[in-house]
Design a protein that fits this description.
The protein has one domain: K homology (KH) domain (GMP Synthetase, Chain A, domain 3), CATH 3.30.300. Helices cover about 50% and strands about 20% of the residues. It contains four helices and three strands, in the order αββααβα. A three-stranded mixed beta sheet has the order 1-2-3, with helices on both faces. A hairpin with a 5-residue loop joins β1 and β2. α1 crosses α3. It is globular, with a radius of gyration of 15 Å.
Amino acid sequence: MESESTRQQKVARQVQKDLAEIIRARGMAAYDGAMITVSGVKITPDLALAKVYVSIFPSSKAEAVMQQLEDETPYLRGELGRRVAKQLRIVPELNFYLDDSLDYVEHIDELLKK
């Protein structure tokens, strides 16, 4: 598999940052008290599709929150479009994937215990 171009990486970082801000602005209450972290974004070479990886804590709420993110995709994409309209010709389609890396959950557990 060929590596991502610099443009893909830049667009992916921008999408990750903007989506994280959009989700954070909605607040944890909007997601039943779950904490959502946009842990990564991979974007296709044509910049038309973004695979958005999210971590959800507590993981017991992951399924419900993932469903909610799927349902809200048009809204989230619209918000993203308003933020990146100057930089991108097309706003990428968003596909959400659960990043269930246990290291992350354990790390958050440790931070919450402090």
